[in-house]
Write a structure and sequence with these properties.
Shape: globular
Largest sheet: 9 strands, antiparallel
Distance between the termini: 33 Å
């Protein structure tokens, strides 16, 4: 099982016992998410924005307008950092000091290039759509030339990465354990609600199998 080598860039220093450098575990965190938070500089100011993404092996793909200032800034910098985080539980301790959360987070350090090859660009766009709902791309109207040419696609090749995972319960002081204060965990989970069809859809169009499958897999 491969791991990312640790360096001053990706080494987890605070809470090092929760650090994860395993490639497969980090990919699992990426694949379970929908939005990545990407940092960049624009006119000397630091900005962080959420972006939808897709993954193929060790490459993350972003897309947007040809004039998207974030994408253009990333291209100019030729590098980027992205974080994905899942909140799994609220940890309610007997003191405010020991309140915490259970989470899975991964931070990536990548180089950035523009996807120029048309076949690679289409594969990247498919991967972003199918990351949202597997099997969706093949059911859609194909992009026309104007749409395709007006879309900028960036490839972020992961150079190194690290993750932090907390998956334990309340950690209180021994001297607080007998206090008459409730402590415990409130688990949190992102779930899919029943699909709601577009009111402009013709009546005869039924919810497709890939949407139903996603709902059944991810419902409460």
């Amino acid at each position: 099982m491969s791991t990312y080598a640790t360096s001053e860039l990706n080494k987890v220093k605070r809470g090092a016992k929760r650090a994860v450098y395993d490639v497969e575990q980090i990919n699992d965190i990426l694949d379970a998410g929908f939005v990545g938070y990407i940092s960049y500089h624009y006119n000397g100011k630091a900005i962080c924005l959420p972006m939808a993404y897709g993954r193929i092996e060790n490459k993350i793909y972003l897309h947007g307008s040809l004039k998207n200032r974030m994408l253009l800034a990333l291209l100019e910098a030729k590098e980027a950092s992205m974080t994905i985080m899942h909140l799994d539980a609220l940890i309610l301790a007997r003191s405010g000091f020991h309140h915490s959360v259970n989470y899975r987070s991964a931070t990536l350090f990548t180089n950035v290039t523009k996807v120029e090859n048309p076949e690679e660009k289409e594969a990247a766009l498919k991967c972003v759509v199918d990351h949202m709902i597997p099997g969706r791309w093949e059911k859609l109207r194909p992009m026309n030339g104007k749409e395709f040419n007006s879309t900028l696609v960036l490839e972020m090749e992961i150079q190194t990465a690290s993750a932090k995972i907390r998956d334990v319960g309340v950690v209180d002081e021994k001297s607080d354990l007998d206090l008459p204060i409730w402590a415990g965990i409130i688990p949190l989970k992102q779930v899919a609600a029943l699909p709601v069809k577009d009111p402009l859809l013709p009546r005869q169009i039924r919810t497709p199998k890939h949407v139903v499958a996603y709902y059944k897999k991810n419902k409460a």
